[in-house]
Structures are given as structure tokens and as C-alpha cells.
Known about the structure:
Elements: E1 3-6, E2 9-12, E3 16-17, H1 27-43, E4 47-49, H2 57-64, E5 73-78, H3 83-97, E6 102-107, H4 113-125, E7 129-135, H5 142-151, E8 156-160, H6 172-179, E9 182-186, H7 193-196, H8 205-208, H9 215-224, E10 231-232, H10 239-246, H11 254-268
Parallel strand pairs: 3-4, 4-5, 5-6, 6-7, 7-8, 8-9, 9-10
Antiparallel strand pairs: 1-2
Helix pairs in contact: 1-10, 2-3, 5-6, 9-11
Amino acid sequence: MLYREINKIEFSIIGMGTWKTFDVSSQSDLTVRQSIIKNCVASGVNLIDSSPMYGESENIVGQTTKNFKEHFKFATKVWTKGEREGIRQIEKSFKLLDTKYIHLLQIHNLLDWKSHLPTLRRLKSEKRIGLIGLSCMNPHDYPLLIKIMETESIDSIQIPYNVKNKFVEKNILGICKDLGIGVLAMEPLGKGEIVHNISPRLNLTELTSVGIETWAQACLTWVVSNPTITSAIPATSRPERILENAKAAIQLNQGLRDLIEFAIHNQSSN
Ligand SMILES: NC(=O)c1ccc[n+]([C@@H]2O[C@H](COP(=O)([O-])OP(=O)(O)OC[C@H]3O[C@@H](n4cnc5c(N)ncnc54)[C@H](OP(=O)(O)O)[C@@H]3O)[C@@H](O)[C@H]2O)c1
């Protein structure tokens, strides 16, 4: 596993999202998430992304990482309106995640960002959080995202980026590179659709020679072979897919990236 830094905090280039996949409550579902977490530890995946918007996710992350707190870098979000309500929600996140330190606290989809930024700055100065971030999934909000990145002190952003959705390459990623802002790529598998829509009869030979065994690995390799991306954060409800996804990105270079892009576009249009 390779790691990239945002302001001296090291994140695995393949992390893990938890939208839907960690919003579970039964004992059997909890057992599966425990296996997912063990496979993250075994394969060097250290970044877990959550949000109060994801139902039980923070609670399940908190429970399943009980014995592995030192291993993980926790990322979550504030997703509410008003400064007081934001503070209440963030304090609840510390409890649910069962941690005294949150490595990355993001404002979810920029919701009421002006109210939350002073809180995040205070928490950072108190060393209770490591980094201040923004998540933004709707291109209509990108002008505002850019304005905040250029005028406030932001450590990282989280945006959708995958081989079928390169919209952020137009201007967002260039600004991140210039300003040294980290980037978490949400939806790196296009919510799973890119892989599901590719014919299972695919021929991966050109890619297997460089260690890529599955289309999911190809998609993830493509995302993180852009050096401006800190981490891709695919979500999964299947423990074996953590091991599969973590094996992406053995090699990263522009030639391979072009080859993957060509192969995926070619295959999914058939
Ligand atoms: N506004 C925001 O802040 C925002 C918005 C969207 C997403 N996010 C974050 O980004 C994370 C990732 O985005 P996402 O979950 O929407 O989409 P994604 O990671 O692109 O896709 C997740 C889907 O891919 C499937 N999958 C995972 N690994 C696979 C593999 N090796 N082979 C085949 N299928 C595979 C999963 O199915 P299985 O469960 O069956 O494996 C799941 O249905 C979220 O979980 C969340 O943390 C943030």
C-alpha cells in the first residue's frame, strides 16, 4: 500500500467509504463489518470516511475499530445547520467513533459552511482534529467550493472522481495542486456502476501483466494515478473486496492510466 500526506498526516491511497455499507444494525451485519475492518488492517487501508448523514455508520465504525484505533485515520463530516447544532453533532461524532482525535473533519456538501468553519478552526487549534475539509458532490456548487478553497484555510476536499466522471479535472484539481490541498475521491467506482456495467467476459491481459486482476482495481488505479488525488475511498459491504481493492495501484504511471481509460471506455460501450 502506498501512502500520501496531507499536512503530515499519512493516508493510504486506497481508503474506504461507508455510505450505505456501514448503515447496518443486526449482529450478522456487524460481524461482516468486523471482517471488513480486519481486512483493512491486514492490507494497510487506514482511511475510513463517514458522516452523520450515513445513519449508523459512525457508530459501527466506532465499534468495529475498537481494537485498532492506532491504525486508522478517521474522517467524518458535519452535516447540519447552525453553529451550536454543528458543535453538538461533532461532539456526538467523537463519542460514536469512540476516539479523542478525528484526523479529518469535513463540512458535508458545504452545508452552512460559514457557521462551521470557526468551530473546525478551534478544534484544530485544540488538536482535537487534524485537518479541515469540505465535501462537495454537486457541480453547481463548485464555484462556491473554489471560492472557499481560495479564501479560507482548507486542508482537503472530497469530490466525485472516476474514469467516467472527470469533471473536476477542468479546474478544481488544478487549484488543489497549486494550493497544496489534499483530495479524497468519492465514488471512485461510479457507485459500483462502472464495474457492474462492464462485460464479465472481459479480456484483461494487457493489464494483468502489470498486476491488475479486476476491473475494480483498474478503476481505482486510474483514480490514484493522478498524483493530485490523495486517496480513493471505495465503499464495500464485502470483506474480500477490501483485499481486492487494496491491491490496486501497484504501479502508477500515465501510460497505464491511458491504457485503463481506453480499455474501460472501449469495453463498456460494447
Ligand atoms: N457528499 C459526500 O460527502 C459524499 C457523496 C458520495 C460519496 N461519499 C463518500 O464516498 C464513498 C464512496 O462512494 P460510493 O460509496 O457512493 O461509491 P463507490 O465507492 O464508487 O461504489 C460503491 C459500490 O461499489 C461496489 N464495489 C466496491 N468494491 C467493488 C469491487 N471490488 N468490485 C465490484 N464492486 C465493488 C460496492 O458494492 P458491494 O457492497 O457489493 O461491494 C458498492 O455498491 C462513500 O461511501 C462515502 O464515504 C461522500
